[in-house]
Amino acid sequence: MSDTKDSLIAAARDAAQGAYAPYSNYHVGAALLFEDGAVVTGANVENASYGLSLCAETVAVSRAMVEGRRGGLVAVAVTGPRTQAQDAAPITPCGRCRQVLSELAQLGGTDPVIYCVGEREVREVPLSALLPDAFGPANLG
Asked: Which residues carry out catalysis?
């Protein structure tokens, strides 16, 4: 793996340690890489009213937006909990997170690579393959 990819995955794993997941005990971390080299992270935040829980990717995008980032998204790493199972499959962003990531990417005209991290495998998928024909800001004009 490249140093950038390794660093982004490490940032996502570090972020997962800050997850608030008392109900599922499924700690997810996300790290967003921008064109200027900045990395913004997030972790899942659960809520007793389950539907109000926030995914790691959504938290990271929210943080990026609050920092004034509007586009420039180059890559995203998403990690789940470390397991004893050597065959733990790579995790992918849920549908809601795909849409949230797509909005940020469309603002800058990018198609970021998503690193879906498993225990032994990292699947690299362009966001456009995870969410083909995505709805976005241009659809409202």
From this structure: 57
